[in-house]
Amino acid sequence: MTKEEMFKMMNENPVMHLATVDENGFPHVRGILMFKAGQDGIIFHTGDFKNLYSQLMKNPNVELCFQCNGIQIRVEGKVELDESDELFEEVYNHPSRAFLKQWGQTVEELRKLIKIYRLKNGKAHTWTMADNFKPKEYIDL
Question: Which of 68, 59, 62 is closest to 141 using CA atoms?
């Protein structure tokens, strides 16, 4: 699978599982909704009041897992906090993020709560039952 095919599958199946590690070294995995994936990285957001935010701030190394029709795409890398106004406006105004407006905060209040992360320069591999025992072949994203 090429990098472009991976990004296409991620965008068509934006629910991903995100693995982090807490301050005691315990792993945590949760399903979250990715915002978008492409040449500028894999972008998602969370609230600054969540454990996910604390874990990412202490240890930005993550693994993401996307799944569709028996294919997994697993991406490992380091996330970076992106506090650009341009990206926040894009996320806030995107139709898929209408649920953010239901929280009742003003844009300014929400801007303080929502933290946007970008995984750039990660490496990815695919997994299927058919290639379960084959060596992993990584692709730089």
Answer: 62
> Which tens digit of pLDDT belongs to each residue from 3-52?
999 999 999 999 999 999 999 999 999 999 999 999 999 999 999 999 99
Q: Answer for the pair 22, 55: CB distance below 8 angstroms, yes or no.
A: yes
Beta-carbon contacts of residue 42 (< 8 Å; ≥ 6 apart): 10, 34, 36, 64, 75, 118, 119, 120, 122, 141
**Cα 134 versus chain centre, distance:** 26
Cα angle for residues 129, 11, 107 (degrees, 5° grid) = 140
Is residue 105 predicted with pLDDT exceeding 90? no
| CATH number corresponding to 3-132 | 2.30.110.10
Percentage of residues of the chain with pLDDT beyond 90: 89
Question: pTM for this one?
Answer: 0.94
Burial of residue 106, with CB atoms counted within 10 A of its CB: 0-12 exposed, 13-18 middle, 19 or more buried = exposed
